[in-house]
Amino acid sequence: MRTVKYICFTLFLLLVAGCITPFVPEVDETEELLVVQGLITDQPEVYTIRLSRSQPLGYVVTEKPVKGCTVLIEDDLGHSYTLHESEPGTYITAPATFCGEIGRKYTLKISERNPTGNIITYQSLPEEMRPVPPIDSIFYEKKTIQPADPKEPMTEGCQIYLNTYDKSGICKYYRWDYTETWKFKLPYDVDNQICWKTAGSDIIDIKSTAVLSENKINRYPVAFVSTETDRLSLRYSIFINQYSISEEEFNYWDKLQNTSVDVGSLYDIIPATIPGNVFCVQKPQEKVLGYFSVSAKTSKRAFIQDSFKGFPDFFSVCAEAADTVSLDAYVPSDAFIIAIRKPPEPPPWYKVITDYPWCFDCSFRGTIVKPDFWVDE
After folding, report:
1. What is the pTM of this model?
2. Pair 142, 306: CB distance under 8 Å
3. Domain ranges of the chain
4. What is the domain class of 15-129+267-294 according to CATH?
5. Spatial distance between the Cα atoms of 223 and 267, rounded to a whole number of angstroms
6. pLDDT along the chain (377 residues), means of 10
7. Are the beta carbons of 40 and 49 closer than 8 angstroms?
8. Beta bridge partners of 27
9. How distant, in Å, are the alpha carbons of 176, 247, 268, 281, 283 from that of 121?
C-alpha cells in the first residue's frame, strides 16, 4: 500500500511540475531539418528566436540547438536588428533597441555556416503586425465531473472563459497562451510551508471570427483546471495573452493542431508536410519547420479562490512514511523533519520525520518568494 501511495504521489508531482517540453519534432525524414521558433510582439520585452534540428524517426529525441548563426530581424522601412545568442541555439533581442510596431512588416533572416564552410541563408516571408483588441473579461464556472465508477464521489473542475470584441473588425484570427500561478501549503509545521508554483500552457489555442457576422468572441473556453492537482487548493491566478495572427499563420496552427491531436501531443511527431513561413534562399526546395510569428499582444490576469469538491489527500504518503521520535533522539541524515511537537503541548514532546523532502519543504516544488503581482484576498 505504501508503494502504491508513493507512485500516486509521484504522479501528482509530475502533473503539477508545469514544465513545457522542448520543441524537438520527429519527422519521417533521414536528414535533420532546421526548426525555427520565434515570436515578436508590440510589447517592450525580450523576443526569442530558437533554432534547432529535427530528429529522424527512430532516434532518441534530444534537442539539437543550432549554434553560431547570425540572426537578424528587418522591417519594411529598412531597419535591421541583430539578435544576440544567449545560449546555444537561443537568440534574443534587447528591449531597449527593438520593439515591434503595429502596421510594420517584419522579416527574419538567418545565416548559418555549414560543415563545408559555405554560408547558408534562411529567411521568412514578410509578416505584418496586425492590431489586436483587449481581452474584455475573464471568468470561470464550476464544472461537475461524473466519476466512471458511480460509487466514487463526484468532483469539480474550473472552466475558465474569456470574452473579447474587436469593434474595428480588423483582427479576425486569434491565438492565446497563458501562464498559471498557484499558492499551495504543506499540511505540516515546517519553515517553508507556503509556496507558489508557475507553469505555462503548451497547447495550440486559436480561433477565427472570419465567418461570423460580428467580430466578437463570447465564452471562449481558454483553460480547464481540475482537482487532480493542488492548483485550486488555496488561490490560483491565470495570466492570458491574446495575439493577432494572419490567416496564413492560423492555417499553420490549425494543421499542426489537427496533427498533434492525431498523434497525442503537440510535441510528438511534427510532419514536414506542414509548411511554415521560413525557406532556404539557396535551396528553396529544402524543407524548413516552424513559424516566425509577428503578433500584437494584449494580456489580462484573473484570480480564483473558491472551494472545489474532489481534492485527494496529496500528502497521505508523507504521513504514512512518517516516524515519531523524541526531541533528543537521533535523526538519520536521509530523513526530514516535517513537524515538531513541543510546549505548550503536554509531554511527551517529539519529532515527526519522513523520507521524502517535498513533505518538509515546499520549495522542492515551488518558490517561497511571493510573486510581485500576487494579491491575496
Report:
1. 0.84
2. yes
3. 2-11+313-364, 15-129+267-294, 135-244
4. mainly beta
5. 19
6. 46 44 52 91 96 69 85 96 96 93 98 90 97 98 86 88 94 97 92 95 93 92 95 97 97 86 45 83 92 98 95 83 77 77 70 85 95 93
7. no
8. 56
9. 31, 26, 28, 6, 9
